[in-house]
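Listing 4. Sequential folding, example run.
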Amino acid sequence: MTIRTAESRRHWAIAIGLTALIAACAEQPAPAVDGDVAFVGVNVVDVEGGAIVPQQTVVIAGDRIASISPSADTSLADTVMVVNASGQFLAPGIMDMHTHPVTNDDLALALGHGVTTMRVMWGNPLTLGQRASIEAGEIPGPRLITAGDLVDGEPPIWAQYGLPANSYTDPDAMDAMVAEEKAAGYDFVKTYSRLTPEVFEAILSAGQKHGMEVSGHVPQGVSLRDAIEGGMRTSEHFIGVLAEVLSDETQGTPDLSVFDPGALEIVLRVASGEVDADTFVDPEKVEDFASWAAEQEHWFVPTHDIMRNFTNNTQRSFPGALRFMSAAELGLFDDIESGSFFRLTPPQKTGESILYEIRTQVLKEFHAAGAKIMAGTDHGRLAPLLIVEEIKALHNAGFSTAAALRAATSEPGRYLGMPGELGVVAEGAIADLILLDANPLDDLDALKRMQGVMARGVWYDRATLDAMLDDLSARLTAARAPE
């Protein structure tokens, strides 16, 4: 016989009570998840891991992702708006890190094609006003990161094309210029090709002093290594890379031959065979410089797809593009697509075609070494239609589909100082999302087949996007119709 004391009986009763409580809790469903919008049954695209997390419920509260959990285990509060996303794929919104939007229509078109962040490389006070209006919810559009006016040397490149362009020749004036740009609200200073080394160095110093990013073109008289060591945050178009890895260091750079007679001479020598394309770059130098660059806090924005417009293989037409273009833009688009905007000669196009393939191989090596690379279109109105082509161009340069996607999602998030918070589908991240019909890790063209876009927690379903885009198209078509 077991004799229980009062104390043992009390412990026994507590144990029985705890067992009953645990059993009761096990029988109770999990508390309903609250929020504003929930994507139910969706396949989450993990761009960081390059994998799909199937059958999830993603709940949005405000402008953040509140929770991600298996749909089978998740119940929702009655107040949550449910998006039945069974069989669909939820990916981060696309981030175009080199764009030139001008009008509110450009911004609406971007959002309508899943671009939730744009980095504006030639801004002005209008851009600052647009950013404020987007943030206030007054107009639809992506998050805007913007430079002010171009900072070029003498003579400024774009003046020859009739565009207003500033030129700077006094290093002592750069501190005030950078301070003014920061005070105005711009995010970075964009440098351009004809700055002297002295003025460029003064801009970098002023940027460090005032906490202002300096990015853009590496000037023609400055080495890329010096620019990076001086604190340049991003370099565009892969400018300066080939000059660092030439087999013949006396050769000079072939970058931007439409602007630089010295570069044009090299391009023509490549076209004629006088310079051997097979030995143009030194593989050992490529490996060494790529490894060094990967260790720096510097991002490359190669704008690789649009650079084909200097070659014999120019960009293709895009179905539906013309419905979003004004009369003036139609002619410009024809010139850009045909490669005639800069009036390249056939030998120049031949040389540029050869050099494009060399750059593609070097870009592949940079990616393999771990260099930081972001996607950018270098376009205005049509940037939203071209960003997927840029992502595909990176894939064609040796990036996996996941890595190419990261160049337009999580990598820009890192560049903006928001790793894990922007450009990912994760709990606590900003709710910039696109809902797709197919898996983009299998086929990057899936990025063109969207069922909706979420920007800062605001959901635009397919019908809403279509109405917005149809209105834009109707207005532009009417504006160019003959009287």
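-- end of first protein; second protein begins --
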Amino acid sequence: MKPHRIRMTHNLLLNYGLYRKMEIYRPHKATAEEMTKYHSDEYIKFLRSIRPDNMSEYSKQMQRFNVGEDC
């Protein structure tokens, strides 16, 4: 999510008092094996390869995996 959307969501949780009814869980960092249970090997390889400084090299994959813009 984009920072603005995260802030909006956080403010809604606070203003409606929903945070009082929530339990917060801190997830562990998923391993590549765990991620391939739900995502293709190609997608995981793409995520491991792309960086802000090389995004232009991955434009086709970004479009294929619908990565780059939050709706």
